[in-house]
């Protein structure tokens, strides 16, 4: 697959990369090689192969989320170290904008 400099700059912009011209040249060449390899793989006939989403056989690797009570002495020690608290709660700065 042939990529021109404008396409490489556009891909870099989409990836939020600020590339210098020599970096664009280097990474553009590497990207061309990757795309050529993927194009080579697309020539393989896979019509008889069963589609696969994952191969490990795992169905669910997550543990159940359980709330466990915190020992009172540990909770008191943590609250004692908190710079800003409200009752038994530790106040923190907002991390999400509304």
TrEMBL record:
<keyword id="KW-0067">ATP-binding</keyword>
<dbReference type="GO" id="GO:0070681">
    <property type="term" value="P:glutaminyl-tRNAGln biosynthesis via transamidation"/>
</dbReference>
<dbReference type="Pfam" id="PF02686">
    <property type="entry name" value="GatC"/>
</dbReference>
<keyword id="KW-0808">Transferase</keyword>
<comment type="subunit">
    <text>Heterotrimer of A, B and C subunits.</text>
</comment>
<keyword id="KW-0648">Protein biosynthesis</keyword>
<dbReference type="GO" id="GO:0005524">
    <property type="term" value="F:ATP binding"/>
</dbReference>
<comment type="function">
    <text>Allows the formation of correctly charged Asn-tRNA(Asn) or Gln-tRNA(Gln) through the transamidation of misacylated Asp-tRNA(Asn) or Glu-tRNA(Gln) in organisms which lack either or both of asparaginyl-tRNA or glutaminyl-tRNA synthetases. The reaction takes place in the presence of glutamine and ATP through an activated phospho-Asp-tRNA(Asn) or phospho-Glu-tRNA(Gln).</text>
</comment>
<dbReference type="GO" id="GO:0006450">
    <property type="term" value="P:regulation of translational fidelity"/>
</dbReference>
<dbReference type="GO" id="GO:0006412">
    <property type="term" value="P:translation"/>
</dbReference>
<dbReference type="GO" id="GO:0016740">
    <property type="term" value="F:transferase activity"/>
</dbReference>
<keyword id="KW-0436">Ligase</keyword>
<protein>
    <recommendedName>
        <fullName>Aspartyl/glutamyl-tRNA(Asn/Gln) amidotransferase subunit C</fullName>
        <ecNumber>6.3.5.-</ecNumber>
    </recommendedName>
</protein>
<dbReference type="InterPro" id="IPR003837">
    <property type="entry name" value="GatC"/>
</dbReference>
<dbReference type="InterPro" id="IPR036113">
    <property type="entry name" value="Asp/Glu-ADT_sf_sub_c"/>
</dbReference>
<dbReference type="GO" id="GO:0050566">
    <property type="term" value="F:asparaginyl-tRNA synthase (glutamine-hydrolyzing) activity"/>
</dbReference>
<dbReference type="GO" id="GO:0050567">
    <property type="term" value="F:glutaminyl-tRNA synthase (glutamine-hydrolyzing) activity"/>
</dbReference>
<keyword id="KW-0547">Nucleotide-binding</keyword>
<comment type="similarity">
    <text>Belongs to the GatC family.</text>
</comment>
């Amino acid at each position: 697959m042939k990529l021109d400099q404008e396409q490489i700059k556009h891909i870099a912009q989409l990836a939020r990369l600020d590339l210098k011209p020599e970096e664009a040249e280097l990474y553009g060449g590497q990207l061309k090689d990757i795309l050529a390899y993927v194009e080579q793989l697309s020539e393989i006939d896979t019509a008889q192969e069963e589609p696969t989403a994952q191969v490990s056989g795992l169905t669910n690797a997550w543990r159940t989320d359980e709330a466990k009570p915190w020992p009172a002495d540990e909770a008191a020690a943590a609250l004692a170290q908190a710079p800003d608290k409200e009752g038994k709660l530790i106040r923190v700065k907002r991390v999400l904008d509304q």
